[in-house]
Design a protein that fits this description.
Rossmann fold; seven-stranded mixed sheet; globular
């Protein structure tokens, strides 16, 4: 609530309608990321933010999009399945005013994350445990196909990583860092030939 008062937006879960709450029981209930947690995860990264497009899968009312816009990402994109939450995000993006905002290319897309075409840019994907196991599996299949078609740097910041075991099983992903409430994964097509720490892991996160 303090974040919303400070920035004149509405990103809390308290005003989510009953229909969206009911759908959350079957999908994943909307819960915005706390600013302190987001800042901690961003501090763990060691990247040139301007090289990356930030994509939040399951972006809800868009709080994470607004917080990501405080970093100089190339673009910030949110993908939200539920129309009411998407519309709230659109309004919040429009209403958001901050003297420290560094990225003005911010948008919310109303789409199923498992069908969303990932941009060809270097990517930082953000997950706040937004998807059931089957949908997360499809997103990872889509990402693998996208990387095969267009090799590039990709990092995944997984907040509250309940299904991190599913990502750990993917041979083309490497866990680069694990915090108290998050895990960071990176893609590196040639790490198996290098031994030791992956260069991509070294590039995307600070030493661990």
């Amino acid at each position: 609530m303090e974040y919303d008062w400070e920035h004149h937006v509405n990103t809390t879960s308290g005003t989510v309608a009953w229909r969206e709450r009911l759908l959350g029981v079957f999908l994943s209930a909307y819960q915005p990321t706390e600013p302190a947690a987001f800042q901690e995860m961003m501090r763990a990264l060691k990247i040139n933010f301007s090289d990356y497009t930030f994509v939040d899968l399951g972006s809800g009312k868009g709080r994470t999009l607004l917080m990501a816009s405080e970093y100089p990402f190339r673009r910030v994109i949110g993908v939200e399945l539920l129309p009411e939450l998407h519309q709230a995000a659109v309004h919040n993006i429009s209403d958001y005013k901050s003297p420290t905002q560094l990225c003005s290319q911010v948008e919310s897309v109303c789409s199923d994350a498992s069908r969303f075409p990932l941009p060809d840019d270097p990517l930082l994907l953000y997950l706040f445990n937004p998807l059931p196991e089957s949908s997360l599996q499809q997103v990872m299949l889509n990402l693998e196909d996208s990387l095969r078609r267009k090799p590039r740097d990709v990092g995944i910041v997984y907040h509250n990583p309940i299904l991190e075991g599913q990502l750990n099983q993917l041979p083309w992903l490497k866990m680069a860092r694990h915090g108290d409430h998050y895990a960071i994964f990176v893609h590196e097509s040639s790490w198996g030939l290098l031994g030791g720490r992956s260069p991509a892991a070294s590039k995307i996160v600070s030493a661990w």
